[in-house]
Write a structure and sequence with these properties.
By secondary structure, the protein is mainly α. The chain has a single domain, classed as P1 Nuclease (Orthogonal Bundle). 52% of the residues lie in helices and 4% in strands. It has a three-stranded mixed beta sheet with strand order 2-1-3.
């Protein structure tokens, strides 16, 4: 999505930058004029509730799915000085990347390839069953809570290497199975949470759908180039979309 010039205005909507190690979200500081993922989630959930134009409705749906997946990837609420981990070079399983990309696609792709033999359908089935058996409360529709959870993961886990050294942009860091084994359960938990929560949100939107005047995208010219997120075709977003569709079916059948 971000590779097309017509969507460049949306770039800063895909992340929230917080001061290094502040470990909290202050809306007035971190989301000026609602230009961040939190503002985007509010805007596009409202758009889906109030507007029925077919093409626009489809765009709003995919934006909402994308923003919900973004906010559940911890480094989309990362530190401002390293652009959410984009500025931290790491070598993961002998492959050079950056910390943000590792959490966007690297960890998930490695698990998909090595545990599920690159069969995304098998991985989806596993995640869906895990979601159905989840014991913790998943149906939390507070966008602020989603942000707080990602910040907590960032400050307690993501930035620490295998020796518990804080990673930064001044040097490169080697990450292997130790980092992977402690990280993939977090990635999967966030996938499941995002899929279930977004499915439940869309279910509520369907129930409260009314016509209204469509809002318009921000008119501010976007020049921030720090956001280097994966395209919508990333495994993270694909799996979330599959989970969302399954959740909608599940919720419909359960009448909740």
């Amino acid at each position: 999505m971000l590779g097309f010039s017509r969507w460049q205005w949306s770039r800063p909507l895909h992340y929230i930058n917080i001061p290094p190690w502040s470990c909290n979200y202050v809306h007035e500081r971190d989301c000026i004029n609602d230009i961040c993922t939190y503002g985007a989630l509010k805007n596009y959930s409202t758009r889906l509730m109030t507007y029925k134009n077919g093409v626009q409705h489809q765009q709003d749906f995919f934006f909402l799915v994308h923003f919900a997946s973004d906010i559940h990837q911890p480094l989309h609420v990362g530190f401002k000085d390293d652009a959410g981990g984009n500025g931290i070079t790491v070598r993961f399983m002998n492959t050079s990347t950056n910390l943000h990309s590792l959490w966007d696609t690297g960890i998930l792709s490695y698990r998909l390839r090595n545990t599920f033999q690159s069969n995304i359908n098998s991985y989806y089935d596993y995640l869906y069953l895990k979601m159905l058996n989840q014991t913790v409360e998943m149906n939390n529709d507070s966008f602020m809570q989603w942000i707080v959870e990602s910040i907590d993961i960032v400050c307690k886990q993501v930035y620490f290497d295998e020796m518990n050294v804080i990673m930064n942009s001044s040097t490169s860091f080697n990450l292997s199975h130790v980092y992977y084994e402690r990280s993939w359960p977090v990635v999967e938990k966030r996938l499941i949470q995002a899929g279930y929560r977004l499915g439940a949100l869309l279910n509520r939107i369907l129930k409260t759908h009314t016509e209204s005047t469509t809002p318009t995208p921000p008119t501010t010219t976007i020049t921030n180039e720090s956001c280097q997120n994966a395209a919508f075709s990333s495994p993270f977003s694909i799996l979330i979309l599959l989970l969302v569709l399954s959740v909608l079916s599940y919720l419909f059948n359960e009448k909740i």
